[in-house]
Design a protein that fits this description.
22% helix, 126 residues, alpha+beta, globular, Alpha-Beta Plaits, 3 helices
Length: 126
């Protein structure tokens, strides 16, 4: 299942020193099952090297995930060069395997992809 995400790219300001020209920020939310925070952190601390390589090869230079403990909502941020994001990698075997591995601790779609929703950027400051 390919998910579409709205992305933001600064056209008014050049990238700060050390930033990649044309990089964009991609933000989306996902939903963690109740009581699964520790397991979610453990699995991400042990992220598979081949998945990490795939993400980097896809142009993802930064990837952070934050959690709201009150709602179990996960907020994901990616800095991406190129046109895609991690959300465009769902047809790869390693991502399908990761989704299946994570499906017992997250809200998922029938194909095991995380239920997710794009977030619109409403403010940015350099």
């Amino acid at each position: 299942m390919k998910l579409e995400y709205r992305t933001w790219k600064s056209k008014q300001n050049p990238p700060p020193s050390g930033e990649i020209e044309g990089a964009k920020r991609v933000v989306f939310k996902m939903y963690l099952n109740e009581g699964q925070k520790a397991e979610y952190i453990k699995r991400h601390n042990e992220i598979w090297p081949e998945l990490k390589k795939l993400l980097k090869d896809a142009g993802i230079s930064e990837y952070s995930i934050f959690q709201d403990d009150e709602t179990n909502t996960l907020f994901a941020f990616q800095k991406v060069s190129g046109e895609g994001s991690s959300q465009d990698l769902g047809q790869t075997e390693i991502v399908k395997k990761w989704w299946k591995f994570m499906a017992d601790i997250m809200k998922t779609n029938p194909d095991n992809s995380p239920v997710s929703k794009e977030l619109e950027e409403v403010f940015y400051m350099e």
